[in-house]
């Protein structure tokens, strides 16, 4: 086994495990809400996900942007600048998290009604969203800590940080939803407390002797140049998260339009399964990212390209496995999550139709992270924002005109094919036509 393959496995394994565990958050909430509250509770929670996920998207943008700069500066031997990037990340997460909650809470009822909350869904959706929006600084700080720990050479510790949050969430979900009877509000409170534990343990790591990174009061003064680089580096990551949020928004709207509350409840299950696969693929891409960033900063282009290929093929292989799981479980998963009748039938059919999504999901995700970490921000942004702004909306609003609710389920796999075509063009342009020039500088 080559040294690069060993390095690849060392980084992606804990990263994928950590992100898969993070993806289980939605599965856990969906399971407990489905069992305790039923289809209406699932539909109410699904309605709020785009709003709640926006804070995580902002946190991921800042954290990943800072982590990329941190790796590049370390690769170039600039350790002081790397530490400044870490301090600026913490400052930005705190400020943006506080602003997010302060601006959104007053308009939250109007936002939920704008997302399609009916009187049947509004009360549960509002209680669920209010708790998570009020504590939005917590997932942002958690995202940032995990991203920096992974780039600080501690991918296994970052994974265990996520495990602590998940196990806490499972225990608290059960307590708050069943013995305490808090319903959707209990699920939200469990998530917030679990994320606070992740932040606390992350802070303990950065105060330990296991890292050279140090958070100081002097370091919390804004460095606008470094903040600008962090935000710019993180734009494609924000786009990746906005793509997921946009997918949820548009799917929620179309599911309600073509199959009412039953369609939205069915989509909540499909989205939970897809989000687990998406998080797994993001973990793969995030595991490759620090290596690509480091070798790009060190100008070792041959090794950078090799790791990119490892990531693409691994993403495709994982996609095959996830597609098989989705197809095999199309009858089992709805029953597990407390769905029956028409809702279970809709969810099962949706799982079958959307299963091919996984084949190219990881390939496109790895490709966008590779370009982002190589300084090809325009290519990464086209792949990510092109999904949210063009490919997915076209598929979601055109296919149902002929196929009805089946067209809503088919939009994801069809849009992945379109994005893969764009990725193939960029890969040829940057890594085949320019291969000899890059390798000459290796």
Structural class category: mainly alpha
Mean of all residue-level pLDDT scores: 85
Could you list the spans in which at least 5 consecutive residues all have pLDDT below 50? Answer: none
Count of all domains: 1
Tally the helices: 16
The run of helices and strands is HHHHHHHHHHHHHHHH
The largest pleated sheet is described as: none
Supply database-style keywords:
mainly alpha, 16 helices, 86% helix, 0% strand
How would you describe the overall organization of this protein?
By secondary structure, this protein is mostly helical. It has one domain. It contains 16 helices and no strands. The chain has helices spanning about 5-35, 40-75, 80-105, 110-115, 120-135, 135-150, 155-175, 185-205, 225-295, 300-330, 330-335, 340-355, 355-375, 375-405, 405-430, 435-440. Helix 1 (about 5-35) crosses helix 9 (about 225-295), helix 2 runs parallel beside helix 6 (about 135-150) and helix 5 (about 120-135) runs parallel beside helix 8. The longest helix has about 70 residues, at about 225-295. The chain starts with a helix and ends with a helix. The mean pLDDT is about 85.
SSE layout:
Blueprint: H1 3-36, H2 39-75, H3 79-104, H4 108-114, H5 119-134, H6 137-151, H7 155-177, H8 183-206, H9 224-297, H10 301-328, H11 332-336, H12 341-354, H13 357-373, H14 377-403, H15 405-432, H16 435-440
Helix pairs in contact: 1-2, 1-7, 1-8, 1-9, 2-3, 2-5, 2-6, 2-9, 3-6, 4-5, 5-8, 6-7, 6-8, 7-8, 9-10, 9-12, 9-13, 9-14, 9-15, 10-13, 12-15, 13-14, 13-15, 14-15
